[in-house]
Prior knowledge:
about 260 residues; alpha/beta; UDP-N-acetylmuramoyl-L-alanine:D-glutamate ligase; 6-stranded mixed sheet; 10 helices; globular
Amino acid sequence: xxxxxxxxxxxxxxxxxxxxxxxxxxxxxxxxxxxxxxxxxxxxxxxxxxxxxxxxxxxxxxxxxxxxxxxxxxxxxxxxxxxxxxxxxxxxxxxxxxxxxxxxxxxxxxxxxxxxxxxxxxxxxxxxxxxxxxxxxxxxxxxxxxxxxxxxxxxxxxxxxxxxxxxxxxxxxxxxxxxxxxxxxxxxxxxxxxxxxxxxxxxxxxxxxxxxxxxxxxxxxxxxxxxxxxxxxxxxxxxxxxxxxxxxxxxxxxx
Length: 255
């Protein structure tokens, strides 16, 4: 049986904890086949981002065409885009694809570095309308106008609560015409949270590529993220990476 094919359109993280690298690890560990369209190169580690260099829109489009034209695609995950021009060309390509799309509207890195300017955020509108699911965290949700604005757009979104205060983390899935699904779990206290949003969105995309329902895909992806947080290898002096590989290894050893 062929694995579900998932295309990640996102930036590269030289430290390996987030972005394209986290997406590849997640998709692979969940049994999918990972393909990539790199939107930007970043020089970063657990302590922060020191340099960002965006790819040309033509190069991003060429990568998408190369993957979808030959290998095919069952779902798409979108992360860091780098510029409004890249956001526009990604939207152009997605309009031609009839597959689930998960959009993680990356604006700020875990370390606090800005990864999207105001013009790029404004260009997110087309992608939000095209996406099967948009996955903003607390500050990203506010930047997009808040819950009321997304509900008014009539789009599906997952409000992630990891950035909120309190002993528990609450995530809310809102789908037009359906009652919200809410998950609440005890907060995992760790500094090794680099790449949580990338991992969650690519995990959701992989499950959707397999044909899972949206609510089930989110539920399974949340479990994967929590397990990866608990399995973090403890690398770096700042916001360390999660333990994607250790999640599967532990499951195999216990099975």
